[in-house]
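Hello forum,

I keep getting stuck at the same step: I have a sequence, I want structure tokens, and every attempt I make locally crashes halfway through. Rather than fight my setup again tonight, could one of you with a working pipeline run this one for me? It's a single chain of 347 residues.
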Amino acid sequence: MAPEANHVQGIDVAKVSEWLADNVAGALAPFNFQLIAGGRSNLTFLVTDDNGIRYVLRRPPLGHVLATAHDMAREHRIISAVGQTNVPVPATLGLCTDESVNGAPFYVMNFVDGVVLDNAEKAELLDKSLRRSASFNLIDVLCELHDVDIDAVGLGNLAKREGYIERQIKRWSTQWENSKTRELPEIDEVVRLLSTKVPRQQDVSIAHGDFRFGNVLTDVATGRIAAVLDWELCTLGDPLADLGYIGVYWSDGPASALRANDPTPAGGFTTYRELVERYATKTGRDVSGVDYYVAFSCWRLAVISEGVYARYLHGAMGNQEGIDMTVMKAGVDALTIRALEAVGRLV
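Reply #2:
Ran it on my machine without issues. Output:
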């Protein structure tokens, strides 16, 4: 039975359906659109056509958003480029920049089977005997990403190559000022400490910006990564920033299980230190200052979380039933404290 055309906030069903039929090879109307739960920034929709073929559509949040923060053409370009490499990503199928179609640009990609391991309960879907190998495969995919020849895949002019941390501190400090819903002096202290301890950038690579189990699809039958998702924060920069970011979402025991969307408290995964050592062995990079990147990542995530909370308050997040956004607000404070702790471990 064909799925009926439905009404979904953020989708002009008639116009988007016409565009899909005209621009995505083999796509057959009518289409069913469903907001994929958990999307807290760019909105992600599961699209099912009349043949039961599934696609994924991405568009910016509803309402006012910060300039350049939700560039669909840029995200489409990155995924298309990375798709030329051994890094697993969904195949891109089309980009629409005509805002008369849906009020904002969007792009479409293949649906990839897999599970987003974004909490300890989801981790139970992965057999405990596969969790160590899944941990190592996650870091191996990151190593593969950081080994991509950015010029060869056409991303050499995506962003400036040097001064990544300095640029990021400037960018996210500005975003904090534009998005904050209250004063938080500890944020200012983190920025001060990060600014005085910036490490030397060893080299340049694609920096995913949000790399973790919660942003990849894992094949739970094999423990291998099926696809890397959510490229909106991707740029060129210091590869160790991605390594530090994984540390924000990695539990080495109950005392360090601080993120609800971290699957590793379920047990059976490697330690974060083992991941860091494997990364160092495979890439040859000096990882002795990884705590700086953990601190930086905690701070940046705090700023992003505050921005998401601010957009929620202004009704720009679509229908996000079942999500307690006060947890997001509390997480800003916890991440700021953790950033202070991590930067305090540096000599």
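The chain has a mean pLDDT of 90. If your local run keeps crashing, start a new thread with the error log.
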